[in-house]
Amino acid sequence: MNVPTEYIFALATIILIPIYYYYTKLHRIEKFFETFPTPTTVPILGNARDLRSSAALFKNLHAYVRNYGKMVHIKIGPIGHVLVCSDYKFIEFLLTSNKLLKKSFNFKLLEPWLGTGLATADGGVKWRAHRKLITTAFHFKILEQFVDVFESTGDILVQKLSKESGNQSVDVFPYLTRCTLDIICETAMGTKVDTQNSEASSYVQSVKTMCKIFLSRTMSILKRYDCIFRFTKDYEIQQKCLKILHGYTNNVIDSKRRELEEKRKDKKWRDVDDLGRRKKKVFLDLLLEGTVDGQSMSDKEIREEVDTFMFGGHDTTATAVSFILYCLANNKEVQDKVLEEQKELFGNEKNPKVTYSNIQEMKYLENVVKEGLRLYSPVPLFSRRIDQDVEYDGTIIPKGVGVLIFGHGIHMDPQYYPNPEKFDPSRFENLDGRYPFAFIPFSAGPRNCIGQKYAMLEIKCLLSKIVRNFELFPASPHHEMMLAVEIVLKSLTGVKISLKSR
Hints:
The chain is of the alpha+beta class. It has helices spanning 5-33, 54-68, 88-95, 111-114, 125-135, 140-162, 173-187, 202-219, 226-229, 233-265, 283-289, 299-329, 332-346, 356-360, 363-375, 407-411, 427-430, 452-469, and strands spanning 71-76, 80-85, 170-171, 291-292, 295-296, 381-385, 390-392, 395-397, 402-406, 470-474, 483-486, 488-491, 496-501. The chain has one domain: CATH 1.10.630.10. It is found in: Endoplasmic reticulum membrane; Microsome membrane.
C-alpha cells in the first residue's frame, strides 16, 4: 500500500519535534542540574508529592535546605526542573541583574486575574514604562498625606477589636485584611469602600480562593495546562472569583473616573495647594491621567495595575501585621519596649495626633517590624526564569532554567541570623550592612517591591495604634500556627492571640 508523502512527513515531524526539543533545550537543562543535589524522586512525579499542599511545600523547602544545602534541584513531573536557592551569592547575582527579570512560567497562571501588571509582567518595555510612572505615587510627600488615612481607618480597627477584648482567643487576621483593604482603596485608589463595617467581604474571600487555586495549579502536573484546567471544578470556581474581583476593581476605577470628571467641571477646583504647589497625584490618578510613550494607558492596563496593587497592597500587609502581633503577644518583654517607646512619644495618650515624623521616630518598632518580616516573611518565595544563557561563577546557566529564590530560607540561615527561630528585634540594631541580600522581605534589585516604604509606614502605624490600646497575650488554649505558602505566607489555623483593653 502506498502511503502519501504528506502523511510520512507529518509522522516524521511528530517524532522529530520532541527529539529536537530534548537535545536542544531539555538535555542542556538536565546536564546543568546534574551538578546539584536532588531529593529522592519517584517515577513520573519527581518531587511533586513533597509539594502536594501549601503546608507541605513550606515544610519541605526548609527540609531540602537542611538536608541538601542552599542550592537544590527538584523535579516536578517528568520534565519540570527547578533550582531552589537560598544561597547568598547566587541571590545577589540574580536579584541585581538588569537582564534576568522574567518571572517563572507559573506566574502566567495569575494572568486571568492580574493580567500583565507590575507583579507578573516579563520585565520588558511595558514593565519598565509602567514602573517608572507608578514610582512617583510613592514619593514621601504623598506618603505623608496617607498617615491620616492610616490613623482613621486604624481607629475603626481598634473599635472592632475592642469587642474581642477579654476573649481568650481571637483570630486577628480577618480584622486586618478588611482594615488594609479599606486603607489601600482610600490611599492608593482615592475611594472609600468601608469593608470593615461589612459583615463579610466577597473580595477578600475571592482573593483567598484565587491564591489557593494558583498554588494548586503550580504544584499539579496536569492542571497547570489550560486545556486540562478548563475541565476542572477549580476553573468554575476561578471564573466566579474573577467576576467578583474584576467587578470590584472596575467599580473602584469607575468611581474615580466620575470624581475626576466632576472636578474638571468644577471651576473652583484647582490642582495646586494654597501655596501654589502642584498637588501630588495618588496611584490611580496617575494611571487615569498619565501617559506611557505619549499614549494613555488602556482600560485593560489600568485594571491590571489596580488588581495588582489591590491584592499586593492589602494581603501582604495584613499578613505582616498579624504575624507581628502574634510575636508581640508571645514576647511580653518586646511588647513592653514597644509600649515604652510609644509613651516617650505620646505620653499615656492612646489616640494622639500621629504625624509622619512621629512614625519615623519609632526606631525600636521598626526593628520589631523587620524581625517580624524576617521570621514570617509575607512573600517567602520569588521566582525567575532564565531566558538567556548566562555565566555564573564560571558555569553557564542555560536558557530555560527555572529558579525559586527561597527568601525565607536565607532569613532562617544561622550564618546570618544566630538562633534564627528566636524573635529578637535587637539583632537589627547590630547588623553592619555587609549582607544586604540576607534580608529580602520586599525582594531586591530592579524588581523589588515598589511599595515597600508605603508598607513599612502602614505596618508601623497600625502596630503602634494597637499596642497603645491593647495589651496582647498568647491565646488560650495554646495556639500553634500551621504555616503555608499561598502566594503569601498564611497560617492555616489562623493567627490567634488574646487582647485586653489598656
